[in-house]
Amino acid sequence: MIEANHLRTTRESYGRLAETYAEFARPLFEQEHLDRAAIAAFAGFVRAGGDGTVADVGCGPGHVTAHLHALGLTAFGVDLSPEMIDLARRTHPHLRFDVGSMTELDLADGALGGVLARYSIIHTPPERVPEAFAEFHRVLAPGGLLLLSFQAHDEPSAPPEPFDHQVALAYRWSPDHVVSLLRETGMVEVARLILAGREDTKRRFPQAHLLLRKSAEAQP
Ligand SMILES: C[S@@+](CC[C@H](N)C(=O)[O-])C[C@H]1O[C@@H](n2cnc3c(N)ncnc32)[C@H](O)[C@@H]1O
């Protein structure tokens, strides 16, 4: 099968900069209190829904997968970049990390209680995003939760631009547009948290955290 260009470019850029990205993201996550609040709420909903397994899709160096584990969830990470997965495995040897793409997850239908996709759809061109969303929906059990985080924009989608850590170009979307795409797959919005961007920080764009639930009713 021919691989899409954006997957190759993304894998190569994170492969070259896995350690650099980890040095950027790990300490930042320690200070991201509202992100952590959203993740804690996600964990609570997953536990209440039967405590199913959670995939951290586009897990990077695995620090958030480890955080999910520390919150008591059965969590594993998936990432496009073998170098990222290698780094995640070395840093968190007690956890499972797999190489794979969010567009083609090696998981059975309905296998998961939760999907966390934290800043990992941002390198996917807008026309390919529905593919990833359909895959999130497929692997979630009915009633399963999705927590999706990305840099927000007022327009439905915006041209790619250099991201805060400069690893690769990133896309931004409006939260409403993303929710409407997810709704088409059979997901229902539970809540959204929008953080203001701050020029004086490493998060200069507004950040959206969307919590959605896969409808428990049978899909057409
Ligand atoms: C900005 S980093 C986010 C890493 C981590 N989730 C975090 O919160 O710090 C984006 C990650 O998503 C991964 N990624 C991008 N597209 C992907 C895809 N199609 N499938 C799996 N991982 C992907 C990249 O390799 C990279 O590690």
Automatic annotation (TrEMBL):
<dbReference type="InterPro" id="IPR029063">
    <property type="entry name" value="SAM-dependent_MTases_sf"/>
</dbReference>
<keyword id="KW-0489">Methyltransferase</keyword>
<dbReference type="GO" id="GO:0032259">
    <property type="term" value="P:methylation"/>
</dbReference>
<dbReference type="GO" id="GO:0008168">
    <property type="term" value="F:methyltransferase activity"/>
</dbReference>
<protein>
    <submittedName>
        <fullName>Class I SAM-dependent methyltransferase</fullName>
        <ecNumber>2.1.-.-</ecNumber>
    </submittedName>
</protein>
<feature type="domain" description="Methyltransferase">
    <location>
        <begin position="54"/>
        <end position="144"/>
    </location>
</feature>
<dbReference type="InterPro" id="IPR041698">
    <property type="entry name" value="Methyltransf_25"/>
</dbReference>
<keyword id="KW-0808">Transferase</keyword>
<dbReference type="Pfam" id="PF13649">
    <property type="entry name" value="Methyltransf_25"/>
</dbReference>
